[in-house]
Amino acid sequence: MKDIHPSEITPESTFLNRRFFMKSAVWAGSALATTGLYRAFRPRPQISNNGKAIAITPDREMNLSLPADEAANSFTEIAGYNNYYEFSTDKSAVAEAAKNFVTDPWTVQVGGLVRKPRSFDLAELMKFEAVERIYRFRCVEGWSMVIPWTGFPLSKLLHLVEPAGSAAFVKFETYYDEKQMPDARFAGIDLPYVEGLRLDEAMHPLTLLATGLYGKTLPNQNGAPLRLVVPWKYGFKSIKSVVKITLTEDRPTSTWQLANPGEYGFYSNVNPTVDHPRWSQARERRIGETGSRETLMFNGYAEQVAHLYAGMDLRHYF
Amino acid sequence: MTFTADSRFHTQLIWFNGLLPAALVLFDGWRGALGANPVEFVTRCSGVLSLIFLIITLAVTPLRKMYGWNWLLKQRRLIGLFAFYYGTAHLITYLAFDREGQLSTVAADVLKRPFIAIGMFSFLLMVPLAITSTNRMIKRLGGKRWAMLHRLTYVVAIGGVWHYFLIVKSDITFPALFALWLLVLLGWRVVAALKKAAKVPQ
What we know:
By secondary structure, chain A is of the alpha+beta class. Chain A contains 8 helices and 12 strands.
């Protein structure tokens, strides 16, 4: 073996320095990696309201709004926690994923069993007199909010197209575009998203087509530019970013019914006495509260809507 | 001392990175930055962290055998304990917020919801593993018996991933990723065992 010249041996101080440097690098690198991983999953803290102001007309049915003692959730809560699977299945990531979604121009086609089928462009939709309605919103997952929507009763739009006598149901469809919604491939549900109501449910004064919240046009993540709001049903019935409304004779099959018929029914009325197979529906957590509260029959709208289901077995028609 | 022999450094590194997520969650909770539903986030975060540490413990043996990283073995119990710590945090969030501290309702909930039953079962299996994680317990049980007992980790990991599958509504991406890693790590063991059996003369 060749002798090692003393000058070739790394001095101890240099060796220790190098070790110190390497150790520090490992510490810093691992801390960055761990923090980065955590950050990737952590919800975004703040969301700003960039909508355009909507002119609000006085509501002749003010009694349908919640009284002020049930405080509305903050804009950040409402616009930062969304189920919109076309963009992301992470409720806290939808706002970011949907920020470049194009909602203007927009057309809603209304057809099927109607006398005057027609389409509405965005300007026409925004011409409907908008009222503010503060509604409870109950998600099937067990959380709830109070949301100040702006919009107009769906019945107003349906009256314009004149439903035919044979029309019994209304089918709604969400816009779907793989280019604008690349993560939709992870959604695990068939798209475009489809929902439906019975015609009398659709004509009910509580049923809104919302164009805004907190007095401004809807954020993309909340279903811009136009979404359905049916406050006595679980949130997934309130379909977002509607492009097609079709009146039908037969009951349409909704996306969640199709995905899991044992867990999601057509009616999906909020009902504390009928549990979801995987969790109880008796209680809910209001966003912003740590404790839970009792879930109300028809989400607290029994007085207005219970008659629609008189004589029906709601355990069967869940 | 070389990097691979510096086990004190490894231990410090694992403690640091194991506690860091908990510290970040506490910090974000204190400044109100856990999003609209902090309870849901903390529940999901603790559950996923427990699974991550479980997967890492299961990766130790394959990494040792494939790359000769024997220094990892000394750290395996600590990594496993972090799986137990985060599993405990997960259970506490369930008891405190889902059950709202009403422990008498837990039994009925376990019977009613299969994913709760599977999660609970997996957690309970971790308890004896955590208790026997000390040097003294290894001596008392004897290495062979201890190793046998700690193979329960396989069952815990399968149960944990299954539990995750059962709670998602439709997007199975994350549970599927965990399942894939689990399949690779358990599959490696099956293949290794088959190879070993083939070598033994009949």
